Amino acid sequence: MANYKNKLEKLKSRRQDIFTKVFSLNESFNKMTYGESTTYALEAMEQIDPNYTSNTFKQVERVQNQLKPGLKTYGIDVDFRYQGSVPTNTHIKLYSDIDLLTIHQKFFTLEPPLQPTYPYLGDTLADLKELRLKTFTILDAVFTSCVIDDTGSKAMNISGGTLNRKIDIIASNWHNSVSFHNSNDEDYRGVKILDRDNDREITNFPFMHIYWINHKDNEVGGNAKSVIRLLKSIKADADEEIKVSSYDIASLVFRMDNSYLLVNKNQRILLVNNVNIFLTKVINDVNFRTGLEVANGTRKIFCHDGAKIEEVIKLQKEVEALVVEMARELKPLYESIEKANVYY
Q1: What is the DSSP letter of 121?
Q2: pLDDT in tens for each of the 344 residues of the chain?
Q3: How far is it, in rounded angstroms, from Cα 171 to Cα 204?
């Protein structure tokens, strides 16, 4: 049987204010109205206190405020955007990491069959490498108390010192898709990110991912993001390492039928049971699994660079164990999870 007391402690540690030592948790958490596994499931679904999320953006803005004028002195104009879990409010840590895209404004690339009117004659790869190099130079000079790690191929990160967040900084340029060209809607606009050590650029569509996750969540009354947070928490607190990315977890939840997610607030523990049913189908139905695409439709969820079935099996087993333990805890009050009403 899984040790949910230990899992609760791990969850609490992610939500403790490093200055006040106060835990940012639902009031019912401390009252332990329900058993440990049920409390864990309910709290894992909760969003991070918006004040701390706001402070995450404030911290990254400090970095932006140094980079914008600093890069300008080197003749490099940049724009900034965010990607990852924080913009979709599916992060699970009070002091969450955040991805900052530094977008070179000197050029952009085009999705075929689009053709440029005035082709760029420079070396885009060299330009992005220069952007990354100058970014390091500026941050190293300004944030002297912080740790800057420039070893990653796709991102450098800065943390510690006067920053109480880890910020991943990614050199990139705009990549205009056909859909963006036709609509001028930035949700359709992509980016090319620098993969420095492999001398290449990688195409991503992070804003379309954000759009579709938000859209799905709005359709089901906020329950999609609750399930994403739940699965990310289960992954983080598992005794065995589970190698499924946050991106693929979000995409799996995105591909859940809305009927699994449309439950009222007092029946939220049904979400745990329903995601277990869904993951079981993903594992057992090969045709269904191989047809699943990530939320923005740019690749299959299960592919060379995506989720691996053996890792999703590990995740499903953790979810199943949680369902079993919750049913045991709630048995004195309710005949089954399906009939349970919880107030949290």
Answers
A1: -
A2: 688 999 999 999 998 887 777 677 765 556 567 889 999 999 999 999 999 999 999 999 999 999 999 999 999 999 999 999 999 999 999 999 999 999 999 999 999 999 999 999 999 999 999 999 999 999 999 999 999 999 999 999 999 998 989 999 999 999 999 999 999 999 999 999 999 999 999 999 999 999 999 999 999 999 999 999 999 999 999 999 999 999 999 999 999 999 999 999 888 999 999 999 999 999 999 999 999 999 999 999 999 999 999 999 999 999 999 999 999 888 876 666 666 666 65
A3: 12
Do strands 78-83 and 167-176 pair parallel, antiparallel, or not at all (unpaired)? unpaired
Q: Which two tokens stand for residue 216?
A: 């799905």
DSSP run (H or E) holding 115 = none
Identify the DSSP state of 242: -
DSSP E strand boundaries for 34-90: 78-83
Does this model's pTM top 0.85? yes
Helix axes 246-254, 269-284, angle to 10 degrees: 100
Assigned token pair, 41: 């499931």
- Sequence-separated contacts (24+) of 61-67 with Cβ below 8 Å: 62/163, 63/100, 63/139, 63/143, 63/158, 63/163, 63/167, 63/169, 64/100, 66/138, 66/139, 66/142, 66/143, 67/102, 67/135, 67/138, 67/139
